């Protein structure tokens, strides 16, 4: 008889080889297409950035700085003044000797055009007790704001006992600071073309000039970096003690700022921080002392005129 070779195994092997080749080819084509689309998308984004970087900027509005200019002015961002939920602040000096404060915005969510539109809005806000916006940087992924530099830095350095407190603010200065903050907030809430809720009123965001005139800083930043309101609430939780109960219920009104302002006034008078996580938070102690008629015991013991301070607490 004639022996016939079994070809079934060979056929199966051929099918497997062909299948692997087809799948491999399709995978390679997919990867090549994906790489091409990614490269094209990146190129378009870079072209848009370059186009936006050369947009004309109207005269009279905040100055436009390059990233290199701010890098040089701050000595490569080496002198940090502070940090918060929106980003860090660095001290700098321009070529003409002008001192500035440069705030780098973390995770800025807007494109260059949108960012500049919001900067234009902020640049048109002028008030004696709001920190002046001098300029900005919107270069590629960098988003920075350039503010005037105030020599006596933030209020918390002056009202809370610590190793950096140079001297105790007298009652006349403290009451002036309270009045200035109130005027700045009133402007934001009632006199701006577009109402601005600050969302983060606290001593760290109140800056003092050489004569201890108070200026509200960081206003309008929540909108500027395009954060959702829920994200702003999360950010505020990182600084407990100032957040109004209404915000926990997602009620966004100027009352949130008014509550925070009230807490800060108590801190200014008492020279103590309101620690929300403490069983003996400042507001709880204030309530009990008021009921007992012993508010004077809460006033900063190093302050000169305690009777007038008590009237503000009442």
UniProtKB/TrEMBL annotation:
Biological source species: Taxus chinensis
PANTHER family: G-TYPE LECTIN S-RECEPTOR-LIKE SERINE/THREONINE-PROTEIN KINASE SD2-5, RECEPTOR-LIKE SERINE_THREONINE-PROTEIN KINASE
Protein kinase domain span: 75-314
Name the UniProt record assigns to this protein: Protein kinase domain-containing protein
Record field: transmembrane: 15-36
Keyword Kinase: yes
Pfam (any one): Pkinase
Keyword list, A-Z: ATP-binding, Kinase, Membrane, Nucleotide-binding, Serine/threonine-protein kinase, Signal, Transferase, Transmembrane, Transmembrane helix
Family: Belongs to the protein kinase superfamily.
Taxonomy, superkingdom: Eukaryota
Gene Ontology MF terms: ATP binding; protein serine/threonine kinase activity
Ligand binding (ATP): 103
PROSITE patterns registered for this protein in UniProt: PROTEIN_KINASE_ATP, PROTEIN_KINASE_DOM, PROTEIN_KINASE_ST
């Amino acid at each position: 008889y004639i022996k016939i070779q079994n070809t079934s195994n060979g056929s199966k092997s051929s099918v497997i080889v062909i299948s692997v080749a087809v799948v491999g080819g399709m995978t390679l084509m997919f990867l090549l297409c994906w790489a091409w689309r990614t490269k094209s998308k990146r190129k378009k984004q870079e072209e848009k950035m370059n186009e936006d970087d050369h947009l004309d900027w109207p005269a009279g509005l905040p100055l436009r700085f390059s990233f290199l200019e701010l890098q040089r002015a701050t000595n490569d961002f080496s002198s940090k003044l502070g940090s918060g939920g929106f980003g860090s602040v660095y001290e700098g000096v321009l070529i003409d000797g002008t001192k500035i404060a440069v705030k780098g915005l973390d995770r800025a969510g807007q494109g260059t055009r949108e960012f500049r539109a919001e900067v234009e809005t902020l640049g048109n806000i002028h008030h004696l007790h709001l920190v002046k916006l001098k300029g900005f940087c919107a270069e590629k992924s960098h988003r920075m704001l350039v503010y005037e530099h105030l020599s006596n830095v933030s209020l918390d350095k002056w009202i809370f006992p610590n190793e950096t407190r140079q001297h105790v603010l007298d009652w006349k200065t403290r009451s002036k600071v309270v009045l200035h903050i109130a005027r700045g907030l009133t402007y934001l809430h009632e006199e701006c073309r577009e109402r601005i809720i600050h969302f983060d009123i606290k001593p760290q965001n109140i800056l003092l000039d050489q004569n201890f005139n108070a200026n509200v800083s960081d206003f309008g930043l929540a909108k500027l970096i395009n954060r959702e309101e829920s994200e702003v609430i999360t950010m505020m939780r990182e600084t407990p003690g100032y957040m109004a109960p209404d915000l926990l219920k997602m009620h966004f009104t100027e009352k949130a700022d008014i509550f925070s302002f009230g807490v800060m006034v108590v801190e200014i008078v008492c020279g103590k921080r309101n620690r929300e996580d403490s069983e003996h938070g400042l507001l709880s102690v204030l309530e009990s002392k008021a009921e007992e008629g012993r508010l004077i015991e809460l006033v900063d013991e190093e302050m000169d005129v305690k009777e007038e301070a008590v009237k503000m607490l009442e």
